[in-house]
Amino acid sequence: MKILIGLLVLLVLLVGLVLALPFFVDLNKYQDQYKPLIEDALNRKVQLQDIRLTVWPRIGARVAGFAVLDDPSFGSAPVASLSSLDVGVKLMPLLSGKVEVEEITLHQPVITVIKNQNGVLNVSTIGRKGLALPEKPSRAPIPSTEGPLKILALLAVDRVSIDGGRLTYRDLSAAKPTEYVLQDMELLLRDVRLGRTPQLHFGSLVQPFNLPVKLDGAFGPLREAMDIEAITFELAVGKTEFTITGNAAGNDANIYITSPVISTANLPVSLPLKKPVEMKNFQIAAEVKGQGIKLNTLSFRLFDGQVKGQGKLIAGSDAPPFKGGITIQGVQLGPALNAVAETPTSVSGTAGADLSLQGKGFSMPDLTTALDGTGHLAVKDGKIEGVNLLQEVVSALKVAGISLDDAKATVFSTIETDLVIKQGVINVQRLLMDSHDFQATGGGTIGFDQRLNLLVNLNLSQEMSQKLAGASPIVKLAMKDGRVSLPLMITGTAQAPSYDVHLKSIGGKVQEQVKKKVEEAVGGLFKGTTKPEDLKKEGKELLKGLFGR
Question: What is the span of the domain harbouring residue 537?
């Protein structure tokens, strides 16, 4: 019994001694040794309020009041801070003289990323000793392979977690400064060690959109060179889900992204659309080499048609240069145009296009000034609702008694045109439009501001020309080879188009006919083949033809 009591007392003393270790072992005296190493690795000054030994719930250390100060040109506030950092080690390896990190937990980390008025990020020189802060954003820094992930892999950490973090991005370079926040961050990273495949979970709420984001997956196995053979993630952005796969080697990577459906109604950005648009079977295959991004495949279903693209992009600036091509097949034009803008006229039909584009930036001001391109557009078996081009001709000629199948629509079998895009203007070249009652050819311009300036020549069919000629003697005189041809000007905007038929061409043709008749009559008088009485009769017939009486 005495032996048992003695063992129990010894055990209590040992437990008491272990629990008292944090009060006797002062780790702060080692700050002068490890603090310069941390500052040298981060290229930033750091602050440590306290560091002490912990024995519960596991043996390790707790760092309190840790902060990484910002670049002095951005201010004296921390770029990153956390209330405390817990590092736990395994007991059994420790007893044999080995340190194996079991868990690292960051409590309430706060990270602030700032882009100054010159477009330079405050994090652009973190971890890059001797590199001065750039004066302008010539390009984004290429991530270093000697990052924290490699350090964790070398330490062989079983578990890394973030508890209640916050990441703020503040853009001071825009005309109206903006701020975005990842709040309530949660992160769990398991099995981070060389030769193993870490498991990742990340969740947050993006403000000001109040948009939940969740990422789950795995990547690895980890190598000393940080080459990753396989990446597999499931990303949920609000109601939109993506599958991300690929691999990485150094600063290069191959990325594949798919999504069953992407609705613009669920995106956090505001797009210039009147109605939500759905992209189905979305697929991207891209190669990343340094700052160069090569888009090998872009494919999705849109308005019952197929859209495919490819291109290149150089990242690292607010207006990244890009170059690529887009092919569109079988898109229903009516729903597509209705989603873009509400106009008094709408065009339906099955559309296809081939476009080659290059430019800098993706905002509307950037596209207006820098987007260049060429292409071809074709629309088959469609209708222009809200306007009948023949009705515009009939009204301009003031012809009565002409009935049209639909006074508020123009049915066509084909619209084809070549396009040249430059400085915010779409140049329409070699426009061809085929309809049952006419064929239109011409060209003009359409501005990104939706201003119209088109001139087309309407060549009416023989049947329609005969109808107009029967109702208007003037039109009859203006016919050539049994057809009526009229220039039509389309101006105004897409919301309020204006149509103007140039009647001067009719007048010119009538003058030619009158001149021809007069020359024939005068020639007949000189030759003696025409009598004055016959000339008078022909003159009456001519006037009757001109004025209808």
Answer: 511-549
